[in-house]
């Protein structure tokens, strides 16, 4: 019994007689207390009416987005104060506005947020099966919006996810057709990856699927090469079938 009591006393003395051990424990207590204090301070900051956000400064606007639309989103998603506002969540909400591709939001001391927009630049209309008005931007991305009145855009129709590929092909086809002074007004890609072009004079070109032996560019070149000799026979009801290994056929469009 005496030995046990002596051992316990020795252990206690060992702790108090070790400055390094005491300092380590004190450091841990200090760090833990600091974390608790910081956490409590953050909770207090979130609840106190200090550092309120008074201004949202728009430095790069989008013409199609009104101030009222921006204000409505701001009142809904900008919560908390200057220090606690969730910028990432607010940015995502602003990016849901029509004609907005990207939004950037940053703090400006002491009471403002600076909002910058990157707008959408349409290059084509997207014909969707659900009838929702959509457009294609210069990166080949589809976005929900209605084309402004008077803006003449080609119409793309194809499977979901094919808009970027169609934009690339559109540029290639339009360049070839420019040599015969014709504009490409509609481009269609079927589920089987067959291509159909509609020209500004109403003529429809059936190019079919891209094949290693007869690439699409080669078939379209065949048409542009012989266009001068057949243009007098072309009219708004014509379909030019280019899916032959050589040559092409003129057909009446089915009503």
TrEMBL record:
Primary residence: membrane
Cell location: Cell inner membrane; Membrane
InterPro entries: Cell_div_FtsQ/DivIB_C, FtsQ, FtsQ_C_sf, POTRA, POTRA_FtsQ_type
Domain POTRA intervals: 51-120
GO annotation, cellular component aspect: cell division site; plasma membrane
Membrane topology label: Single-pass type II membrane protein
Transmembrane annotation, as ranges: 21-45
Sorted UniProt keywords: Cell cycle, Cell division, Cell inner membrane, Cell membrane, Membrane, Transmembrane, Transmembrane helix
GO annotation (BP), single: cell septum assembly
Family the entry assigns: Belongs to the FtsQ/DivIB family. FtsQ subfamily.
Subunit text: Part of a complex composed of FtsB, FtsL and FtsQ.
Function of the protein: Essential cell division protein. May link together the upstream cell division proteins, which are predominantly cytoplasmic, with the downstream cell division proteins, which are predominantly periplasmic. May control correct divisome assembly.
Protein name as annotated: Cell division protein FtsQ
């Amino acid at each position: 019994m005496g030995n046990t009591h002596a051992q316990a006393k020795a252990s206690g003395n060992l702790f108090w007689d070790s400055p390094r051990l005491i300092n380590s424990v004190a450091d841990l207590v200090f760090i833990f207390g600091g974390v608790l204090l910081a956490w409590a301070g953050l909770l207090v900051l979130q609840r106190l009416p200090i550092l309120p956000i008074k201004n949202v400064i728009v430095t790069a606007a989008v013409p199609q987005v009104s101030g009222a639309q921006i204000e409505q989103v701001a009142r809904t998603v900008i919560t908390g104060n200057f220090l606690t506002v969730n910028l990432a969540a607010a940015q995502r909400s602003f990016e849901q506005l029509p004609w907005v591709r990207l939004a950037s939001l940053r703090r400006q001391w002491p009471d403002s947020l600076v909002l910058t927009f990157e707008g959408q630049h349409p290059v084509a209309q997207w014909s969707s099966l659900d009838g929702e008005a959509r457009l294609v931007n210069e990166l080949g991305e589809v976005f929900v919006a209605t084309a402004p009145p008077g803006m003449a855009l080609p119409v793309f129709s194809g499977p979901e996810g094919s808009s970027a590929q169609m934009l690339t092909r559109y540029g290639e086809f339009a360049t070839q057709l420019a040599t015969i002074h014709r504009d490409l007004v509609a481009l269609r890609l079927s589920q089987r990856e067959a291509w159909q072009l509609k020209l500004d004079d109403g003529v429809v070109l059936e190019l079919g699927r891209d094949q290693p032996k007869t690439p699409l560019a080669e078939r379209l070149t065949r048409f542009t090469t012989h266009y001068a000799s057949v243009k007098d026979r072309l009219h708004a009801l014509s379909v030019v079938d280019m899916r032959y290994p050589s040559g092409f056929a003129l057909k009446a469009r089915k009503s």
